[in-house]
Every structure is written in structure tokens, then in C-alpha cells.
Amino acid sequence: MPNNNAQEFDRLRTKYRNFQRTIPQKAAITMVNFFKRNFKVGGFVDVPFQRWKKSTYPGARATMVRSGNTRREIKKIQVSQSRVTVGIGNHNHYAKIHNEGGKILITPKIRRFFWAKYKETGKEYWMWLALTKKTHIEIPQRKFIGDSKALEKTLDRMIVSELKKALL
């Protein structure tokens, strides 16, 4: 009876190499989808769940989803065998302050913008922003991208299932 262990070993090695080649792309897609889901649930999915602070703008829709630009900008930045990086594209300047929180300096240019919005909409909210004596606007942290235990569990499950599929 011939022994075909060498052929079986070569077949498994080929499948494992294919798994190694494809898993970073699949991990990147999983991460992008995970971070985009934070916009649907209205907070950062982690252990524990961190709900975003509600907007103070009158008549505002759900927090962080008015235009959807930030959510659409989440994409794969770098994918290699040793590292997968997911982040925000270069065109979204305000994503960092939303993700980390912070203060914005109120400049004369911003006050002119508030007056223009008041004249455009007629809403007193914009007038009071233009007339405020504050020198800064506080932006609360609304984390949507970052390290998450829930993401690690999701990636672990995905990798184990893909490895089982690859080797069976």
C-alpha cells in the first residue's frame, strides 16, 4: 500500500499558504465593517459599550450621521502580511476631534460662519453661537475607531473559522 503522506502534506501546506496570503485582506474588511457599525448603533462597540453624547444642535438627526462622510471615509490604509491599518482618509479634517474629543478655538472666521448660518436659516441657535463670549467650543469624545476587545473577539472568530475552512 503506497504512502501518500508527502502529497497530503504538500496539499495542506499550499492551503495554509493561501490562507496566510488572504487573511490580512479579510481582517481589514472585518475591521472596516466593525468600525462602520459604530455609526449604526450610536456609540463605540467595546466592553463596555460606550454610547455617544447627544448633539445639542436643535433638530439634529442621529449623532455623527448627518452627511455620512466620516463613515464613508473609513477604509483600509495599509494591508501587509505583518500589519493591517484601517483609518480615515485625508479629506476628513474633523474626524480626529470627534474620535478623540477636544476644544475648537472660536475665531472671527467661525463667528462669520455662524452669522451666515443664522441669516440662511433664521434659527436663533446660530445667532447665539455668533454672539457667545466663549473662546472655545468643547467637542465631546465620540469614539468610532480604535482598540476594542469586541473587535479582537470578532477577528479571532473570523481567523479560526477561515483557518478551519482552509484546512478542511
Automatic annotation (TrEMBL):
Pfam entry (one): Phage_tail_S
InterPro entries xrefs: Phage_virion_morphogenesis
Name of this chain's protein: Phage virion morphogenesis family protein
Organism of origin: Chryseobacterium soli
